[in-house]
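Kindly review this record before class:
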Amino acid sequence: EESFNSAKSGKNVAQFFTSKGCTARCTFCQRNTRGYRLANLNDIEEHLEGIIERFDVGFISCMDENFGSRPECARAFADLMHKHDLLWTATGVRCVNVSQEDIEYFKARGCCSLKFGVESGSQAILDSMEKNFTVDDVKRAIYATWNNEMFSPLALMVGMPGEDDQTIFETGQFIGEMAYELGVPPKDFSFALFYALPFPGTPLYDHCIQTNLIEN
């Protein structure tokens, strides 16, 4: 909390990118560019200084698709946030890309929230998405944020191939378990629910073509 209380009084929020692209290959994900590129830290700082001065910014929302894919760069960004007394959050975090030590490091440098791409509480569906992590990996990451008094909303998706009553039940059970651990009713628990959409260029789209779910 010390890092939060020492933050500047800037009252506006700015969205920011520290990287472009993603190293994962989830079967539902579509992107226009390939590869993964990091922004230059000096360029980031120059831009930050400008928006802080011009727009009274005190909170940064990092909108990377895959924040933390390069842990040393994520920590350097956290150092930069701390240097300028900024509060910040990051979305698009893979649960296996950040350790408990990383999360503690971020918290001490002004981070108040991490949003993980959880997608499902069913291991069968995670495997179908080729997420390359387990439900237990997700839980460890979420508990690490909560144990550091950081907000961690859940991003979930339904409707992937193989989804049925059992996998939906497992996701609902997962939400209930997380709500219980946090001590809030499930209806008040913060989670976003998305539907799987077969965008052209994704393995999900190819599957739908091959199974005649979409006319070619």
Summary: Confidence is low (pLDDT under 50) at residues 1-7. The helical segments are 2-5, 41-55, 71-83, 100-107, 123-128, 135-147, 165-182, 203-210.
